[in-house]
Amino acid sequence: MLVPIMWSVWGVLVLVTIALFIYRSSLTRDEDDQIYLDEAFQHEKSAQEAIVAKVNKIEPALRLCLWLAGAMTLLIVVRFLWGIVALILQ
Asked: What is the domain range of residue 19?
């Protein structure tokens, strides 16, 4: 009875992680690797700073989702192996 709940939690975590990856990649698509030294390019500089700020804002959530999805994957594998061992020992 606990296994469907574990699979559901794992699925939600993986979907959220994928959504965060897609969002981050859509943000970084417009990011430039340039240093703006002239004041004439202030609007490009501020646009790039806004992109970096958004990416830095979602980075902790993405890292947390990756760790939680990894932990749930490990938990599901351990539960699966535990079931196999219990069947063998019967």
From this structure: 2-30+40-89
